[in-house]
Amino acid sequence: MTQSEFLKLVMPFKDKVFRLAKRLLVSREEAEDATQEVLLKLWRNKSQIENYKNVEAFSMTMTKNFCLDKLKSKQSQNLKIVHSNYQDHNVALQKQIELNDSLQWVAKIIEDLPEQQKMVVQLRDIEQYDFDEIAKMLDMNPTAVRVALSRARKIIREKLTNTHNYGIK
Amino acid sequence: MVLNNIEKLLEKYENGETTLQEEAQLKDYFSQDTVAPHLEYYKAIFAYYVVNQQETFTKNVPLNTKKKINFKWLSVAAVAVLMVGIYFNLPKQDTITEADRLAYNQAKSYLSLVSQTLNKGKAQVNYLDAITKAGTQVDYLKQMESPIQRTIKK
Fold this sequence. Notes:
The complex is a heterodimer. By secondary structure, chain A is mainly alpha-helical. Chain A has seven helices and no strands. In chain B, helix 1 packs across helix 2. Chain B is an all-alpha fold. The chains are: A mainly alpha, B mainly alpha.
């Protein structure tokens, strides 16, 4: 397998790998490192790549495992990464601030979710995989995925309404 | 889109029962500028998802094509080198020429001649065996000693 063939194979899902890594690791730099690591691992084992049934699902699972390992080692080191990512929207300033504020609220709420729900939300609502694919990637059964997703969505909605209504109700 | 429909979809959405198409419908609806006021907060959620979907990985990955050393061929090469080394270090074998063979045969014939004459000489002195035979024949004289010793003891 040549370099260009590999890139052609990897291109469509490298952003998804990156976003999943970022969802779990929060920091952009950490997520970039993780993505690089995952892609390099794939490249090193390129001779076996034909044997994989679904390279994309395989790499997503790899990313999940890699990030969870990272988090585990980080917890033992007691190192905390605080990060804020700023986005730019071309909306009127007032609205922009408002929107940014709510978007950051959503980000914060998702960040507080347990790892599994975080991953499910990421894979379903952002990457739009179907349940069977997610189940395969996360080693869960589809019903469990559905339940986790439902729970996560409810928590996000509840917390967001709470912050919106804060001080009013 | 009818608001009623959206609310139904939202309920399904929260139960995790919506299909991807229905979720796309919701996303479409909440990306509008005007949304029903009691559903305003959903706008943020879906906007967040859409924004996050656009994030890309920009770091480039160094795909080095460094060739690994193939140990299979390395071992073959090692064996070859070893065999060449052994071949050159072997002690040189003497080659037997015709003159050597002649000398060997000559020496052999001389030696057999010597051993033949020696055997002949040995056969001529064989009669000396009679002396040892005679020695054994006079062994009975030793018995004469024993009565003498007996009388001494008494």
